[in-house]
C-alpha cells in the first residue's frame, strides 16, 4: 500500500544507447524527440491499483524510449483523508523539479476517477509553483465517469469491514457524499487548458459528456470509444488500437499539432 508520507513511486529511464530511429516488434510507431529533453510520462493509477498492473501501461512508453513515472494514491487519501492529496501532488511536482525535468515535455496518463483526482491536485500544484513544468497533454482512461457509484461503494465497504449493518449504513453515506465532492473536484481539473486531451472509454461510461465540456472550454479533445471492454481494461482487450491511439496522441502533443 502506498504511503502518503513517503512517495512510493516507480521511475524508469530509457537505455542510454536507445535508438530513436528504430522500430520495435510491437508497432511501427517512432517518436522524434530531443534526446536532451526526453518526454516524461506520468501514470496515475486508479483507486486500489497494484503497480504490477500499472507497469503494463508504462511499458508502452518505455519501449518507445520515453521516461516513465508511476504512482497510485493511497485509497484512504482518495476517500476520507483527501487533504493529503495536496501534499502528495506537491511531492510529485518536487520530484520532477529535483530531476531537472522542468524543460522536458510531460504527458499525464490517468486512470479512472482515482487517477483523475490525483491529476486535479497535480495541476493545482503546478499552477501555484514558481517553477513551471511543460505539461503538453492528458490521457484520461475510463475517466472522469459519472456512473462509478457502485464501484465507489464496494471500495469503501471493503475498507471499512466489520458489522454488516454498520458497514452498509456508513458506506452508503460516505459513497453519496464523496461521489458529489469527488466529481466536483475532478470537473475543476477539466478547465486546465493544456495542449489537448485523449479520452479512452466504453459505451457505458459518460465520458463523452466530459469530453464535450472540455471542448467547450477551448481544449483540443480526442476520444476513442471501445464497444466491448470493461472499466480500465481497454488495453488488455484492444492492445493494438490502444497503443496506436496513445502514441499518435503523444506525437501530436510533442509536435504542437492540432489534435
Overall number of strands:
7
The domain count comes to 1
| Outline type | globular
CATH level-two architecture: 3-Layer(aba) Sandwich
Which CATH top level class fits? Alpha Beta
* Cross-sheet strand order for the largest sheet: 1-3-2-4-5-6-7
According to CATH, the homologous superfamily is Alpha/Beta hydrolase fold, catalytic domain
In round numbers, the mean pLDDT is: 79
What percentage of residues falls in helices of 4 or more residues? 40-55%
Task: Give the C-alpha Rg.
Answer: 18 Å
Percentage beta strand: 15-25%
| Span of the ends, CA to CA | 37 Å
CATH fold-level assignment: Rossmann fold
Q: Unreliable stretches, pLDDT < 50, 5 or more residues? A: none
What is the structural class? alpha/beta
How would a textbook summarize the main sheet?
7 strands, mixed
Order of helices and strands: EEHEHHEHEHHEHEHH
List the main descriptive attributes of the protein structure presented here:
259 residues; Rossmann fold; 7-stranded mixed β-sheet
Structural commentary:
The protein has 259 residues and is an alpha/beta fold. It has a single domain, classed as Rossmann fold (3-Layer(aba) Sandwich). It has nine helices and seven strands; from the N terminus they run ββαβααβαβααβαβαα. The chain starts with 9 loop residues before the first strand and ends in a 5-residue tail after the last helix. The mean pLDDT is 79. It is found in: Nucleus outer membrane. It is a single-pass membrane protein.
Amino acid at each position: 500500500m502506498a504511503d502518503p508520507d513517503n512517495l512510493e513511486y516507480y521511475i524508469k529511464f530509457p537505455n542510454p544507447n536507445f535508438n530513436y530511429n528504430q522500430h520495435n516488434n510491437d508497432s511501427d510507431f517512432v517518436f522524434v524527440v530531443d534526446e536532451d529533453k526526453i518526454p516524461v510520462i506520468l501514470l496515475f493509477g486508479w483507486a486500489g491499483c497494484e503497480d504490477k498492473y500499472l507497469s503494463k501501461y508504462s511499458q508502452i512508453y518505455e519501449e518507445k524510449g520515453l521516461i516513465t513515472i508511476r504512482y497510485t494514491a493511497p485509497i484512504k487519501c482518495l476517500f476520507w483523508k483527501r487533504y493529503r492529496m495536496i501534499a502528495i501532488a506537491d511531492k510529485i511536482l518536487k520530484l520532477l523539479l529535483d530531476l531537472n525535468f522542468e524543460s522536458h515535455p510531460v504527458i499525464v496518463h490517468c486512470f479512472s476517477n482515482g487517477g483523475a483526482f490525483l491529476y486535479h491536485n497535480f495541476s493545482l500544484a503546478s499552477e501555484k509553483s514558481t517553477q513551471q513544468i511543460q505539461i503538453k497533454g492528458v490521457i484520461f482512461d475510463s475517466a472522469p465517469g459519472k456512473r462509478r457509484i457502485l464501484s465507489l461503494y464496494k471500495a469503501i465497504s471493503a475498507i471499512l469491514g466489520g458489522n454488516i449493518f454498520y458497514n452498509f449504513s456508513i458506506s452508503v453515506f460516505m459513497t453519496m457524499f464523496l461521489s458529489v465532492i469527488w466529481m466536483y473536484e475532478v470537473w475543476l481539473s477539466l478547465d486546465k487548458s493544456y495542449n489537448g486531451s485523449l479520452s479512452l472509454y466504453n459505451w457505458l461510461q459518460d465520458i463523452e459528456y466530459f469530453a464535450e465540456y472540455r471542448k467547450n472550454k477551448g481544449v483540443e479533445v480526442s476520444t476513442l470509444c471501445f464497444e466491448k471492454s470493461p472499466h480500465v481494461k481497454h488495453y488488455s482487450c484492444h492492445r493494438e488500437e490502444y497503443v496506436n491511439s496513445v502514441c499518435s496522441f503523444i506525437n501530436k502533443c510533442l509536435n504542437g499539432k492540432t489534435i
